[in-house]
Amino acid sequence: MKKSVLAACLLLLFANVTNSQITKGNLLLGGTTSFSSSKSGDYKLTEFSFAPNIGYFFANNFAGGLRVQIDTYKEDGDEDAYTSTSIAPFVRYYFIPASKEQKVNIFADVAYGFGSSGSGDDKFNMNGYSLMAGPAIFLNPHTALEITLGYSSMKFEDEPDRYNTFKINVGFQIHLNAAKKKE
């Protein structure tokens, strides 16, 4: 009995000292970016991706928001770059409850987006989903470096097949304490 009471008291004490990084009412602001350049013989391809996001913690450890994804592909010798732009609602869950000592957390993120893609005047619609997971390494109480392994599947208008991609992303998130303090 004494052990149960002690465990309950420690649990309550732990819950009261949690850090507000991933707690209800806070904001999430950040994103990922990537750049690559590849060459095979005379063929050269340059790729750039930028995906800013904004989110809100609806519950402790659980956020939802909106992500904008901009991808640009340019083949050497082509006049126009191929650009893809999408808007995707997302949900994100952090698996480890926050604490003041917590420096690393593991999260999973799921999004479903709509957008357009093309080159020059040749544009077409697309939609698809993405999944990513990885550690959020808190550099300070409000800033996290994220390294994720991701998978996306896009369907382009008038194309019979889906475009599937595995990717490693690096990004930052800023956790803003927007929750009202109880007095």
UniProtKB/TrEMBL annotation:
The record, for InterPro entries, names: Beta-barrel_OMP, OMP/PagP_B-barrel
Listed Pfam families: OMP_b-brl
Q: Does the keyword Phosphoprotein apply?
A: no
Q: Locate the Outer membrane protein beta-barrel domain: which residues?
A: 7-172
- Which interval of the chain is the signal sequence? 1-20
Transmembrane region(s):
none
Q: Which organism is it from?
A: Lacibacter sediminis
State the UniProt keywords alphabetically: Signal
Q: This chain belongs to which protein, by name?
A: Outer membrane beta-barrel protein
